[in-house]
Design a protein that fits this description.
mainly alpha; two-stranded antiparallel sheet; 10 helices; 69% helix; globular; disordered C terminus
């Protein structure tokens, strides 16, 4: 790893520096926005959210934190990050896309199950606590497994832990971890889309009863459109991420990374622009405390 940053072409240093600064700013904006939305939903008695909603936003918080771990050590213009820090970042870099997709699927599954497709998992008209815990724990366990794999690869072959071509973050030059992360992410997104289609069919057949079931479980119909937008953004981000892995051109990789750095902020806007959250933020206005989720 010692010579990797210095191998970035000197002619592209200024471009990389500008791109890296923008990359860090976008990630920081996403981090702050997601933190604000999560804290607001957690502490406000006016806002009701299911556990998988929190895990979905938390996963994107992890995405931002992971990409900001070597701020100040990027592009080869400053001191190099330590091997431990670089490996820690690589662990999060590969685990976070899988965690993002899996928590999105878990959130959609909770809505799907809340419609009564699996009646025996219910108690008093709501999803059983055991199943809710499973929807939280399983994505974490799978993502943790990817982190362990990256850790083992990094320990056994320290030379494969390198900065990616633009120098914005550390990754592995060996492709096993990226393939595993991609398989988990793509599979989860495909299942998410299937579940969303099934939900749309169910809603079209029985709109009124589905609305009441969602409200009883602390959800709303409006959130489905937000999950649809999220799924589209996730598919786009996967495509961009795949392009950055294939490309070896620092300028091209930097462009892909910049596009990816917008995702945490986009998720914060998608799920943080719901009416009840905005009303809490507009504390100077007198509003009805019985606000519907939207």
């Amino acid at each position: 790893m010692n010579s990797s940053f210095s191998e970035i072409d000197n002619g592209t240093d200024s471009v990389n520096t500008r791109s890296t600064i923008m990359f860090d700013i976008f990630q920081l904006i996403g981090l702050m926005l997601l933190s604000g939305v999560l804290i607001t939903a957690w502490v406000s008695s006016r806002i009701s959210r299911v556990s998988t909603w929190f895990s979905l936003l938390f996963s994107w918080l992890v995405f931002s934190i992971g990409h900001l771990l070597i701020v100040g050590y990027q592009t080869g213009l400053g001191p190099e990050p330590s091997a431990i820090l670089c490996l820690a970042q690589a662990m999060l870099i590969y685990a976070s896309p899988a965690l993002n997709s899996l928590t999105g699927l878990a959130f959609m599954l909770q809505i799907y199950l809340a419609m009564g497709f699996v009646p025996y998992v219910f108690k008093s008209g709501t999803l059983s606590p055991t199943l809710q815990k499973m929807l939280i724990i399983i994505p974490l366990l799978i993502s943790f497994g990817i982190m362990i794999e990256v850790l083992m690869l990094g320990i056994l072959s320290p030379e494969i832990v390198q900065p990616e071509p633009s120098g914005m973050y550390c990754h592995l030059t060996e492709s096993t971890a990226s393939k595993l992360s991609s398989i988990v992410s793509v599979s989860s997104l495909i299942m998410l889309i299937i579940v969303e289609v099934l939900l749309a069919v169910r809603l079209s057949r029985d709109w009124a009863s589905c609305k009441q079931i969602l409200i009883r479980n602390g959800m709303s119909l409006n959130v489905l459109s937000r999950v649809s937008i999220f799924a589209i953004c996730s598919i786009i981000s996967l495509g961009i991420g795949a392009s950055s892995f294939v490309s070896s051109n620092p300028a091209g990789v930097a462009g892909c990374n910049l596009a990816l750095s917008l995702m945490p902020g986009a998720v914060g806007v998608i799920f943080g622009s719901q009416r009840d959250i905005l009303i809490v933020w507009m504390f100077w206005r007198k509003v009805d405390t019985n606000v519907s989720i939207c």
